[in-house]
Amino acid sequence: MLFSATTPTHIRPAEKNDHLALSNLFHFEAYNFRHLDWKRPIDWLGTQPFLVAEQKGRLVAALVCPPDSPGVAWVRAFVAAGQIPVEQVWQALWQEAYRELEAKKITKIAAICMEPWMQKLLMSSGFRRTDAVVVLAWDPASPLAPPRFPARPRVMVPEDFPNVYAVDQACFVPLWQNSQPILELAFAQAIFATVVEDETGLIGYQISTPSPRGGHLARLGVHPRAQGRGIGYALVYDLLVRLAAHPPVLGSLQVTVNTQAENAASLAVYKKANFQFTGHQYPVYEYF
Question: Are residues 36 and 165 in the same domain?
Answer without folding.
Answer: no
